[in-house]
C-alpha cells in the first residue's frame, strides 16, 4: 500500500536540468559507478554487495530432491528475490510489485536462462535424485540500481559456493557431509553481469548506476547483461520513451567494459577470500593446538 | 445457483418490461416472437493447433471461442482376461458390456466400446475475463456443460482407444466479452460447434499395443461423425438453451433485459437421438433452474411508507402488512416462490417438440460450414 | 513471404461490438484477439488518495490452453506473463496521450488463441490496432517484430543475414530479439532479447528489425485507413 514518495517537482527539475549539462547530483561522471564493495560471508555461498548506499545479500543453499519429470538429466536451480520493508518503505512482505517482478525476471534471464550454471552437473541419479540449488537474494537497502548489484552478488555467491561431495556406486548414492569430504565448487559456464542504463531528455543523456532519485526521474532504462567475452545474455528495454537504435547499441559497447571490470573485481575478491580461509596453510590444519583466548578475554572472565 | 451481475434498471422499467411480457401474446422489447432466436455469426475450424474449434458472436456483441484438444493418456483401469474391470474407485459402469471382450471379435467398434469410457477423461475449462477460475460463475457453467456432455454416456466411450490407453479430451472455452448477459447458451452452442468439427487421428495400431496414428490428417475421422447412412452415427453433442417464464408466457432466447424480470429461468440441455426412421428426436439430458436476476432487485417502496414523500410513519405491523399485501402500491416486486411444474413441462416441450426451438437451433448450427 | 502479404498476416479492427475497441491479428500461425476498454473511471483503490496525473494503462494477457501444440493451462500469475503485461503497458505509456484522461484506466485485454512465435510482437501490434479502434489518442503506432541471427549456422559468419519474423521452431533454435518502434524511423520503444548472442551481431539484427517494423507499420496503417473508409461510407450511405 505505501509507495515510494515521488520526488518533488523541485528535486526532479533540478536533477534534470543538471543532467542537461552532464552534471550529476553527486558529482560523478555519467558512466561512473558508486564505490562497490564485495564481501563474502563465513559460510560458503554468501555474498554481500554494497553499491553506494544500495546493499544486497545473496545466499545459496543446496538440498537433494527429485528432478522434474520432463528434465530427468538436469538438476533444479531457482532464484528467489526477497524485497522486504527493510530495503525500502515501498516494499511489502508478500506483495509482489513491479520492481520485484522485473528484478526477478532479469536475474532469471541473465543467470538461469543463459546457462551460467550447468544444471546437468547437479544431477545425481538421472530421473531420481538431483540437487536443488536455491539462490536467495535479500535487498537490504534500496538506493537505486538493484539489478546490477543483485546480479553481481548472485554470480559471486555462485562462484563462492561449495556443495556437498557425492559418490554414486550403481544405485547407491552417498552424500558426504562437509566434515567428511571437502565440498566442491559448482560448474559455472560463464559469468554474466548486468549493466543498467537510465536515460533522460529523449535518450540524449545516458547514465550508468542511477541512484534512487535518478531512477525516479528517468524516462526509461535499458538493462544489458553480458559476460566478459562479449556474449550478450539478455537485453531489456521495457517501453519508456523511444530512443535511437544507435544509442542502444552504444549501451552494449559501454556495458562490455563495465562487465570486464566486474569480472576482475569478482576474481580478486574470490582470491582474497581463498587466501583468508587458507590462513596458515596445511601446517595450521594439521596442528592439534587449540585456539587460545586473547588477553582481553581473560581479563573479562575473572570477574 | 450463481446469480450474476446486476442490470441497472429502475423499478419502473422493470415493471414495464414485466407487464409487456405478461401480455397475451407477450410483447418483447425488440419485437421478436416468443420463440424467435436472435441471429448469430458462427465459424468453425479457425485454430490450427486444435482438434476442433469454433467461434460464435451473438447479436448483442458477446463472443466466445472454444478449442478442443485431445491427448493420449495411459489408462489407470485395466481389463483382465476374464473381462472384469480392475479399477481404483471407479463405479462399475463397464461391468455389463465388458464381460465378453474377445480379442478376435470383429464387431462394430462402437458397440465393443460401450461402457468402457470414464467421465474423468473429459475436462472442461472456462475462462471469463475479469473472473478467477474459482469464482462461482465459471464453476457453475463448467459443471452444467460437463453434465450435459456426459449425460448420454456416449462421448466418453468414444475416447476409448484400447485397454491401456485412452484420449483425454480438453475443452477450453474462452468468453471474449464481458459477461453481461448470462453466457450459458453462447458457450454451449460454441462448444457444440467445436465438437462437431473435432477430428481425431486415425488409429493404425492394433488391439492393445502402444497407439500409433496415421500422420495423414485427411485420414482422420470426426468425433461425431455425420454420415448419411447408419442411424447410430447421427449423434450430436448437446446444446443447452435458456428458457424463461413470465406468468403463463414462455419465452426462448431471453435477452438481458428480459431476464431481469423473469419469474423463472430454466437451462435445458438437449441432444438428438435418432429413431429408426431417421427422424431427429430430441431428448432432454439435463435441466437446471437458474436464479433469475429479478430476485436481486429490491422492491420499490410504497408511497405510504416513504416518509420523504409525505407518508405518515406507521407501526411495524402496519408497515409489514402494507408491504406484504401490496395492493398495487409498489411498482415492482421481485418474484417469490418457485415455478409451477406445468410451466416447466411446457418449457421442456417448447424446446424438445418437433419443429420446436431446439430443433431450429440444431439445424441452424448444422448449416455452419466446417 | 513478405510481412505485409495478405495471405500471411491478417489484421482486422472492430471485431467485437461489445468492446470500446477490438482487433484481430494473425502473424503466420500466431493469432491474437485484443479488446480495449476505456478510458474509463478507475475502480477506487483503497489507500491511494492521489491518483495518477494521467490515465493508468492496465494490460492482461490470457493464453488459451489450446494455443500451443500441447494443451497447457497457463496461470495468470505466471511471472513471464506478468513481465509481458508490464512491457506492453509501458510501451504504450509513452505513445498514448494519457495526460488527457487523469484518474482513468485504459484496459487492454489480449487473448492468445494460437501461438507460433513472435508472441510479444503480435501482442503489441494487436494492441495498437485495438487502441486505434477505441479512439484513444496517440502520437504514433507501436509496431513490433522479431529478428533472429543465423550466424552460428552459416558457413561464413559475416555474411549471414538475420531472419525476420521468426516462428515457434525458429525461436527455439536461434538467438532472437523482439524490437518495437514508435515515433518515427529507427526510434526503439521496446527491445527484449532473452537468448545469448555475440555483441557483434546485434547491430545487424537491430537494423533488420527496424526495417521489418517499417514494413509492418505500413501494413497496419493501410488496414486502419481502409477500415476508416468503410466506416465513413457506412455513415454517409
From TrEMBL, chain A:
Residues 280-303 are annotated as: Disordered. SUPFAM superfamilies: Ribonuclease PH domain 2-like (SSF55666), Ribosomal protein S5 domain 2-like (SSF54211). One of its GO terms (molecular function) is mRNA 3'-UTR AU-rich region binding. It holds the Pfam family RNase_PH. One of its GO terms (biological process) is nuclear polyadenylation-dependent rRNA catabolic process. Its main location: cytoplasm. One of its GO terms (cellular component) is cytoplasmic exosome (RNase complex). Keywords: Cytoplasm, Exosome, Nucleus, RNA-binding, rRNA processing. Gene3D superfamilies: GHMP Kinase, N-terminal domain. It comes from the Eukaryota. This is Exosome complex component RRP45. It comes from Extremus antarcticus.
From TrEMBL, chain B:
One of its GO terms (cellular component) is nuclear exosome (RNase complex). Keywords: Cytoplasm, Exosome. One of its GO terms (molecular function) is mRNA 3'-UTR AU-rich region binding. Transmembrane segments: none annotated. Its main location: cytoplasm. The keyword Protein biosynthesis does not apply. Residues 97-116 are annotated as: Disordered. It comes from the Eukaryota. It is found in: Cytoplasm; Nucleus, Nucleolus. GO terms for biological process: exonucleolytic trimming to generate mature 3'-end of 5.8S rRNA from tricistronic rRNA transcript (SSU-rRNA, 5.8S rRNA, LSU-rRNA); nuclear mRNA surveillance; nuclear polyadenylation-dependent rRNA catabolic process; rRNA catabolic process; TRAMP-dependent tRNA surveillance pathway; U1 snRNA 3'-end processing; U4 snRNA 3'-end processing; U5 snRNA 3'-end processing. InterPro entries: Exosome_comp_Rrp42_subfam, PNPase/RNase_PH_dom_sf, Ribosomal_Su5_D2-typ_SF. Belongs to the RNase PH family. This is Ribosomal RNA-processing protein 42. The gene is RRP42.
Automatic annotation (TrEMBL), chain C:
GO terms for molecular function: RNA binding. One of its GO terms (biological process) is rRNA catabolic process. It is found in: Cytoplasm; Nucleus, Nucleolus. Its main location: cytoplasm. One of its GO terms (cellular component) is cytoplasmic exosome (RNase complex). The keyword Cytoplasm applies. PANTHER family: EXOSOME COMPLEX COMPONENT, EXOSOME COMPLEX COMPONENT RRP41. Component of the RNA exosome complex. Specifically part of the catalytically inactive RNA exosome core complex (Exo-9) which may associate with the catalytic subunits RRP6 and DIS3 in cytoplasmic- and nuclear-specific RNA exosome complex forms. Exo-9 is formed by a hexameric base ring of RNase PH domain-containing subunits and a cap ring consisting of CSL4, RRP4 and RRP40. This is Ribosomal RNA-processing protein 41. It comes from Extremus antarcticus. The lineage of its organism: Eukaryota, Fungi, Dikarya, Ascomycota, Pezizomycotina.
Amino acid at each position: 500500500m505505501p509507495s515510494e514518495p515521488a520526488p518533488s517537482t523541485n528535486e526532479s527539475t533540478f536533477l534534470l536540468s543538471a543532467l542537461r549539462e552532464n552534471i550529476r547530483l553527486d558529482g560523478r561522471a555519467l558512466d561512473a559507478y558508486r564505490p562497490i564493495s564485495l564481501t563474502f560471508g563465513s559460510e560458503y555461498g554468501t555474498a554481500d554487495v554494497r553499491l553506494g548506499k544500495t546493499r544486497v545479500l545473496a545466499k545459496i543453499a543446496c538440498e537433494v530432491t527429485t528432478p522434474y519429470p520432463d528434465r530427468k538429466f538436469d538438476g533444479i536451480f531457482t532464484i528467489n528475490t526477497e524485497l522486504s520493508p527493510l530495503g525500502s518503505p515501498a516494499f511489502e512482505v508478500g506483495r509482489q510489485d513491479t520492481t520485484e517482478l522485473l528484478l526477478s525476471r532479469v536475474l532469471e534471464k541473465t543467470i538461469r536462462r543463459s546457462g551460467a550454471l550447468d544444471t546437468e552437473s547437479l544431477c545425481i541419479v538421472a530421473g531420481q535424485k538431483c540437487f536443488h540449488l536455491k539462490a536467495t537474494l535479500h535487498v537490504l537497502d534500496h538506493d537505486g540500481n538493484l539489478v546490477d548489484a543483485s546480479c553481481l552478488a548472485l554470480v559471486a555467491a555462485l562462484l563462492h559456493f561449495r556443495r556437498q561431495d557425492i559418490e554414486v556406486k550403481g544405485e547407491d548414492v552417498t552424500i558426504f557431509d562437509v566434515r567428511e569430504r571437502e565440498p566442491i565448487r559448482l560448474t559455472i559456464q560463464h559469468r554474466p553481469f548486468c549493466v543498467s542504463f537510465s536515460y533522460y531528455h529523449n535518450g540524449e543523456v545516458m547514465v550508468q548506476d542511477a541512484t534512487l532519485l535518478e531512477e525516479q526521474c528517468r524516462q526509461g532504462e535499458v538493462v544489458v547483461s553480458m559476460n566478459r567475452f562479449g556474449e550478450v545474455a539478455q537485453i531489456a528495454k521495457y517501453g519508456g520513451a523511444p530512443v535511437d537504435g544507435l544509442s542502444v547499441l552504444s549501451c552494449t559497447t559501454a556495458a562490455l567494459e563495465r562487465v570486464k571490470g566486474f569480472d576482475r573485481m569478482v576474481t580478486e575478491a574470490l582470491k582474497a577470500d581463498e587466501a583468508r580461509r587458507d590462513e596458515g596453510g596445511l601446517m595450521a590444519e594439521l596442528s592439534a593446538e587449540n585456539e587460545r583466548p586473547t588477553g582481553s578475554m581473560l581479563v573479562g572472565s575473572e570477574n | 445457483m450463481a446469480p450474476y451481475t446486476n442490470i441497472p434498471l429502475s423499478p419502473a422499467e422493470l415493471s414495464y418490461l414485466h407487464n409487456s411480457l405478461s401480455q397475451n401474446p407477450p410483447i418483447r422489447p425488440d419485437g421478436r416472437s416468443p420463440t424467435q432466436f436472435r441471429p448469430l455469426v458462427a465459424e468453425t475450424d479457425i485454430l490450427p493447433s486444435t482438434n476442433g474449434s469454433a467461434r460464435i458472436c451473438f447479436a448483442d456483441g458477446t463472443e466466445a471461442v472454444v478449442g478442443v484438444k485431445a491427448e493420449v493418456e495411459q489408462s489407470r483401469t485395466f481389463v483382465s482376461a476374464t473381462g472384469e474391470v480392475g479399477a481404483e474407485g471407479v463405479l462399475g459402469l463397464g461391468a455389463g458390456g465388458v464381460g465378453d471382450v474377445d480379442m478376435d471379435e470383429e464387431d462394430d467398434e462402437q458397440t465393443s466400446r460401450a461402457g468402457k469410457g470414464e467421465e474423468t477423461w473429459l475436462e472442461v475449462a472456462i475462462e471469463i475475463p475479469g473472473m478467477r477460475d474459482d469464482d462461482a460463475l465459471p464453476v457453475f457453467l463448467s459443471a452444467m456443460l460437463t453434465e450435459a456432455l456426459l449425460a448420454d454416456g456416449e462421448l466418453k466411450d468414444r475416447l476409448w482407444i484400447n485397454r491401456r490407453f485412452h484420449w483425454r479430451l480438453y475443452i477450453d472455452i474462452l468468453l471474449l466479452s464481458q459477461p453481461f448477459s448470462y453466457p450459458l447458451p453462447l458457450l454451449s452452442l460454441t462448444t457444440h460447434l467445436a465438437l462437431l468439427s473435432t477430428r481425431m487421428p486415425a488409429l493404425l495400431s492394433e488391439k492393445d499395443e502402444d497407439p500409433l496414428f496415421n500422420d495423414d490428417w485427411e485420414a482422420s475421422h470426426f468425433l461425431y461423425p455425420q454420415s448419411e447412412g447408419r442411424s447410430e452415427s447421427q449423434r450430436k453433442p448437446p446444446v443447452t438453451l435458456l428458457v424463461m417464464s413470465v406468468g403463463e408466457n414462455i419465452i426462448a432466447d431471453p435477452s438481458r433485459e428480459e431476464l431481469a424480470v423473469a419469474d423463472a429461468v430454466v437451462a435445458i440441455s438437449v441432444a438428438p437421438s435418432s429413431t429408426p426412421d431417421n427422424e431427429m428426436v430430441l431428448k432432454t439430458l439435463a435441466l437446471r433452474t437458474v436464479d433469475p436476476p429479478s430476485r436481486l432487485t429490491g422492491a420499490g417502496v410504497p408511497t405510504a411508507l416513504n416518509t420523504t414523500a409525505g407518508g405518515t410513519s406507521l407501526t411495524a405491523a402496519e408497515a409489514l402488512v402494507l408491504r406484504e399485501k401490496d395492493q398495487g402500491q409498489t411498482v415492482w416486486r421481485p418474484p417469490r416462490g418457485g415455478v409451477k411444474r406445468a410451466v416447466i413441462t411446457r418449457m421442456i416441450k417448447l424446446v424438445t417438440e418437433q419443429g420446436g426451438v431446439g430443433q431450429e437451433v440444431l439445424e441452424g448450427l448444422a448449416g455452419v460450414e466446417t | 513471404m513478405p510481412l505485409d502479404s495478405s495471405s500471411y498476416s491478417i489484421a482486422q479492427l472492430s471485431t467485437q461490438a461489445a468492446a470500446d475497441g477490438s482487433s484481430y491479428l494473425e502473424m503466420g500461425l500466431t493469432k491474437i484477439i485484443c479488446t480495449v476498454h476505456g478510458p474509463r473511471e478507475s475502480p477506487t483503490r483503497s489507500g491511494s488518495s492521489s491518483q495518477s496525473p494521467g490515465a493508468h494503462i492496465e494490460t492482461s494477457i490470457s493464453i488459451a490452453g489450446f494455443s500451443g501444440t500441447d494443451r497447457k493451462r497457463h496461470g495468470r500469475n505466471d511471472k513471464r506473463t506478468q513481465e509481458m503485461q508490464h512491457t506492453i503497458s509501458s510501451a504504450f505509456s509513452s505513445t498514448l496521450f494519457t495526460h488527457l484522461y487523469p484518474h482513468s484506466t485504459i484496459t487492454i485485454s489480449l487473448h492468445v488463441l494460437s501461438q507460433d512465435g513472435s508472441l510479444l510482437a503480435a501482442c503489441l501490434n494487436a494492441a495498437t490496432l485495438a487502441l486505434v479502434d477505441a479512439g484513444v489518442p496517440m502520437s504514433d503506432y507501436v509496431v513490433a517484430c522479431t529478428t533472429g541471427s543465423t550466424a552460428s549456422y552459416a558457413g561464413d559468419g559475416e555474411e549471414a543475414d538475420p531472419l525476420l519474423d521468426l516462428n515457434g521452431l525458429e525461436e527455439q533454435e536461434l538467438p532472437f530479439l523482439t524490437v518495437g518502434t514508435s515515433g518515427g524511423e529507427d526510434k526503439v520503444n521496446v527491445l527484449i532479447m532473452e537468448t545469448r548472442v555475440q555483441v557483434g551481431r546485434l547491430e545487424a539484427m537491430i537494423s533488420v528489425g527496424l526495417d521489418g517494423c517499417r514494413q509492418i507499420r505500413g501494413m497496419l496503417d493501410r488496414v486502419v485507413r481502409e477500415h476508416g473508409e468503410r466506416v465513413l461510407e457506412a455513415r454517409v450511405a
